[in-house]
Specification:
Helix content: 55-70%
Distance between the termini: 40 Å
CATH superfamily of the largest domain: ABC transporter type 1, transmembrane domain
Strand content: 5-15%
Shape: elongated
Number of helices: 21
Number of domains: 2
Structural class: alpha/beta
Radius of gyration: 35 Å
Length: 588
Amino acid sequence: MSAPEGPRASGRAPLPSAAPLRQLLPRLRPYAGRLAVAAVGLVIAAGVGLAFPVVVREMLDAAFEARDSTRLDRIALLLLGLFALQGLMNFGQVYLLSSTTERFIAKLRDDLFAQLVRLSPGFYADRRVGELMSRLTSDLTVLQQLFNTWVSEFSRQVLLLVGGIILLTLTHPRLTLTTLVVTPIVVAVALGFGRRLRKATTGVQDQVADAMGTAEETLGQIRTVQAFTREAEESRRFSALLQGVVAVAIRRAMIRAQFFGVVGFVAFGGIVAVLWQGGQLVLDGALSPGALIAFLLYAITVAAAVGALAALFGNYQEGVGAAKRVFELLAEQPRIADPARPVALPRPVRGAVAFESVGFRYAPELPEVLHEVSLHIAPGEVVALVGPSGAGKTTVASLLPRFWDRTSGRITLDGVDIRDLALSELRGAIGIVPQEPALFSGSVRDNIAFARAAASDAEIEAAARAAHAHEFIERLPDGYATRVGERGVKLSGGQRQRIALARVFLRDPAVVILDEATSSLDTESERLVEAAMAELLQGRSTLIIAHRMSTVQRADRVVVLSGGRVIEEGAPAALLANQGMFARLNAL
């Protein structure tokens, strides 16, 4: 018996600091061929770059020592040919790497979104949607920028560094030692600043996520914000969060500036030392001017490569922070998941529901919400669940489709423990009509077809007719193609509720849950919804959560909850005659 997923529950283990980017490697395997071709182009382009100082030396020697015009012309043409080859190779490797990165990040974003929609409601109890959207956008954008530039530049600079050191050694070993003295200093500086930079970058991303979470929350409740004239206060709150983002971003900028300043000084200070020592060798006749220029170009190449690698190390630290947050989400394990060996429901599904001594708490540290709750719904029976606010009615309705898992007891559908069923089969047998129907910003047709994407237009219209929605849909500007706006804002409450009912009609479930489906409607809308509900309940096992007596009266049986316990049960008329809690609730 597993514990439920509470507000702070987490099914993941912390990721080691170096692990996130390593976890990207298996995801790159499908693109290995494209990356290999890009690598070949990169190697050729880097080789041309390394050949450039040698060609320059030959050109200078031809001009200043041999004074050979024909040789000078040939070398110039060779240099143009090499640059053309380098340009072609750069084009190929940049295109292949950039297009591969776009595909790779799109797949990673797709996988992250698929993971987020799999996680159960308990995960979202302590997470704001805006924060998760920041992970889906800004963190992956950091990774995209990292791969677009870091991979190719890192590889290029490593090739230039290694090749440059080899050619420096072949040109003049003594000068090479002077050049390489600065390398350990630059590496030490990079390591020191890199740790600070990663911490600062993580802080920036966390602050951005917090600000975006607040923005999403405010915009999602814009009518409430405006109704209470809180526009100025909410703007100030968001502005304060943005100031926090700016503050940590400026700290990061300071670290980056210090980093680049120190590395640049050390690297190019080494070049000055090489230039001075090489000048002495030219004066002594131990080195030709062309050889000195070639050596200096190689020294600049090596110094630039060391500086670039140090900068890339800083970018790497930023990428580690972003990847860590992305893979923390990908590693999150849903507490409510399919069993290892799902059991199939008997066919046809009859809709017999049983709660057997069910207990539930939202988190181990929180008090129990349900205590030994037992109730049964026979196939085709309508049961009303009533009780005061906080009695646990909605919790009971949430346990049946396994939005949360009971902590004790057993829940069955047609005699099968719901934890032994695949979630798709369990939830496919249940239709839910909430108090506030969840509509999407697409068309009326899209919203009804959300229950069954493959439904034909005729089936969608039949479901709308059964829900008494066809008449008002026909009067909309574009009929079934009319867009309803975010959360169905362009429709009235009664219209939204009837579309939600049409959605359930289209699904044709064996079990229906009506969660106070008419509590917020006007009289006329309630009449139409009640008529649609009367048709929906025929032949279906139904659990109604309601306060209105008009809804409760259609129930075959009433179960009264109080304090998370069943205290009364029976036919509506019998419970009214008993003068217990149901009678008192009815009087109220």
